[in-house]
Amino acid sequence: MIMYLQMLETSEEKVRFEELVLTYKNLMFYVANQILNNDYDAEDAVQQAFFAILKNFKKISEIKCPQTRSFVVTVVERKAIDLYRAKNRNAVLSFDEEYINTPNSAEADTVVDRTDLARALAMLPTRYRELLLLKYDSGYSEREIAVMCSMTPANVKKTIQRAKKRLETLLGREA
Amino acid sequence: MKITDEMLYRHAAEARDIWLCTFPDDSEIPEHEFSEEFNKEMERLVALSQKQKKPNKRLRRIAAMFAVIIIGASSFIGVNAEARAAFVGWIKELTDDYLIYRYEGTPVPDAEPMVYRPTWIPEGYSEFFVNEKTNSKTVAYSNEAGEMIKFRYIHNPGETDWFISAENTVKESTTVNGHKADLFISTDPDTAGGVIWSDENNCAFMLSGFLTVDDLLKMAESIRPVDLSEHENSPESITEVQYGLTAIPEGYIEVLTDYDDNGGSQLFENEAGQYLTFLYTLNSGDSSMYIDTTSTTHYQTLFNGYAVEVLDSDDPDFPNSIAWVDTENTVFYISGYFDIDGLFALAESIEPVAIETTTPDLSSLNYRPTLIPEGYTWHRENDFAGHRQIVYVNEAGQLLRYHYVYDTASTAMFTVAEGATHSIIDINGYQADMLLFDDPETSNCILWTDENNCAHAVHAFLDEAALIELAESVKIVD
Predict the structure, then answer these.
(1) Which residues of A touch B429 (CB under 8 A)?
(2) Cross-chain Cβ contact B13/A67 below 8 Å
(3) Least CB–CB distance from A6: residue in B5, B54, B436
(4) Which is it for the CA torsion B458, B462, B468, B474, positive or negative?
(5) Nearest to B366 by CA among B399, B384, B388
(6) Pairwise CA distance, residues A26 & A38, whole Å
(7) What is the DSSP code string of A126-137?
(8) Cβ separation of A101 and B18 shorter than 8 Å?
(9) pLDDT in tens, B143-186
(10) Using CA atoms, how far apart are residues B444 and A154, in angstroms rounded to an integer?
(11) How far is A128 from chain B (nearest CA, A)?
């Protein structure tokens, strides 16, 4: 853990990290609690998410921007889903994990001037969308994503390939 | 339609904006009042993130040295033996300032380990600390003035050294209950006297304290084997005596404190990111402290009657350090960005501190993997020093190892991670580290700890899914 914390090398970065915490902790709690429906667990997920973010903090250039917002929400969403799974290992999932926080077509259609590909990507199952956004929007390597999402790099690569296939199918069907 | 990387890079930002639209604006999200626990944890995270200065080479070495103390692997080495005298398997090596008693005999396999206690202790003293879990057993007594007597014994020793500072003492030969003994008579009021001997049961004893020679020998001669059941440690509560710096220089805050059976450490840091380190090891017979002397001028001086090793740094980026061994065989080390007098002032401030600890007995917990992959059969198992291992083997001779550490204070678990792909996974609700190796000659592994503070590891030539299944099958069995 100390190794990770030493990644913040300047006091300026420490101030930026504090700013990130203040800016997003409420949103992150909201996202986590939507999944976990338990304040204590949601706070736990937020803590875990901040720790994961800290490990990759150098890549965050601007705190208040859609890209960072997307990144923190993605991370906390994943931590919350992992926590939910851990706590409900043998229980029936009470939500459709595959499509948690995925916009429906009506929501996506309210956004004008978007390309079909962007709409399709936004509507992908959670895991596919997460990985594609982390790689193609946030710019993380597959190895970094693997650590962040508790997956192996091979699994990340395979999931991204499947996500692309799914996009091809979706767009082919629409065409 | 073929989806290319280039297309995804081009449209990912649009997709992200569409997705983010599913979340309410910040102004619409109800303000959550975070728990005190959460806030504290975040404060800690932010505070620790101020460790902006990467540890320099010296500090990394200190960290490594600390690990060595925790593991307690071997012994003090590098002694130029000038004199040797053996008694019952023990070799005595003499340096200018120290005596090292080293066992070189063959352990007696059938000798029954016994518990020893003095049947007479000087008036005013009472037993306040017992540690008989480690190889080298320690019993300490103290009086109201805080003066201590330390009684230490070791049965059937393996690679064990006892390290005794001979400074400010005169050594004489004597006998304890007919056994040859070395008596150290103190010539300094701040230095304790001591006596060391071994008996016919292959057990070595050491008794030290601020006592007269008569009282010291009287107490030594009163030591007898006692009924084990009467002197078992209470697993519920052991009062440990540990040491701490009590005069912390201005501007330094404590960032780490750690105590265990072998010793302890305190780490302080100032705003400039400079560290002040205090380490000590109580059972130096079971431990090693390797001190790096690179880029330093090394000399010895006297401090409170002890021979102190001074490491005066030649490099302003490296801290100065001092190290010494007291007559109770405790090794102390202080390192910081202070001049040598400043370090001595810190050394003066060292005080014993009592710590109440709860140490549940975990040795009775019997963990096992309950789903062994097809083709593997039980091969062997062993239990040593708080570490239990069960090994299975298949027809190809590949080993499947499950091991766990139930006494984390006395041992450590190491896994070489070089060449591995590391990921953090979940094993039965516990965060675990998984290491997958590309090299077919190296087994994959998963490591985790549970709520009992047991550390577990499975190593096997299995794929990811099978390895996870194996790890998740680990359960406490009857």
Answers:
(1) 86-87, 89
(2) yes
(3) B54
(4) negative
(5) B388
(6) 14
(7) HHHHHHHIIIII
(8) no
(9) 776 667 778 787 765 545 555 556 667 778 888 988 888 888 87
(10) 15
(11) 12
